[in-house]
Amino acid sequence: IHSHPEEQWGLMLAGSGVRVQDGVDHPVKAGDFWRTPGGVEHGLLAGAEGCKVLDIFAPPREAYKRAGQGFGA
């Protein structure tokens, strides 16, 4: 669970999971789309088969604009 000032949209491309947003669990599956306002605590727990998610941030997160930075670096 984390938060950041940027607004975030997500699209579950494959698999399933449970999104936690502002303390509420939301089951998600392939094709589901969501929005998280900036500053709201959120996270995702992948389902048993895993998942693939496309995240879009506005404005773009600074750390993700630099090569070798951001998530998983």
Structural notes for this entry:
With 73 residues, this protein is mostly beta strands. Helix content is 0%, strand content 58%. The chain has no helices and four strands. The chain has strands spanning 7-21, 24-29, 33-36, 42-58. Strands 1, 2, 3 and 4 form a four-stranded antiparallel sheet that branches. It is globular, with a radius of gyration of 12 Å. The mean pLDDT is 91.
How would you summarize what this structure contains?
By secondary structure, this protein is mostly beta strands. It has strands at 7-21, 24-29, 33-36, 42-58.
- The residue-averaged pLDDT reads 91
Which of globular, elongated, flat, extended, rod-shaped describes the shape? globular
Number of strands: 4
Residue windows where pLDDT falls under 50 for at least 5 positions: none
Rounded radius of gyration (Å): 12 Å
Helix % is under 10%
Number of helices: 0
Helix and strand sequence: EEEE
Secondary-structure content class: mainly beta
Which descriptors would you attach to this protein?
73 residues, mainly beta, four-stranded antiparallel sheet, 58% strand
Per-chain topology:
Layout: E1 7-21, E2 24-29, E3 33-36, E4 42-58
Antiparallel strand pairs: 1-2, 1-3, 1-4
